Amino acid sequence: MSRSVAPWQNSRVGPRGLTFYPSPEPTLPGSTLAIEPEDGVAWLRHDPATMRENAKSFADGAEGWLAHLDGDLLFLKTFPKVPRALQAPTEAEVEIYVDHTGTFVEVEQQGPYEALEPGGRSRWTTRWQLHRAPPGLPLRAGSRELLAWVRGLA
Length: 154
What we know:
Layout: E1 3-5, E2 8-13, E3 18-22, E4 41-45, E5 55-59, E6 65-70, E7 73-78, E8 94-98, E9 105-110, E10 114-116, E11 127-132, H1 144-153
Antiparallel strand pairs: 1-10, 2-9, 3-4, 3-6, 5-8, 6-7, 7-11, 8-9
């Protein structure tokens, strides 16, 4: 008997960073953390002082990457784009979880939801990159220069 599954990769990052990813639309229903994209990019500056409870966003990404900036250190995850129709029920391609205590943020991506037979296999490749931002690059939400640099890396 087959079982439907989706691969999932979760990375914990420190608080107070900037998480961003390309997305054509606001966060999906079920999100308790609403993120409105600006010019096709969702930006989340994590400020623990503003968090009163744990929150999670569910979103459809647009280009197969998710980035987190901590100071001048960029953590970039790239993965195959998953169309909305192939995303797992009640889940999404890109998810962000924010811990209300200010201890961590989780940046997550999921692969396609598909049926596997017993003994079957699925392959889903994600790639991690870590880079120091070039000196002088504007490291803020909405920065076109930051976005162009990250897109070049992805």
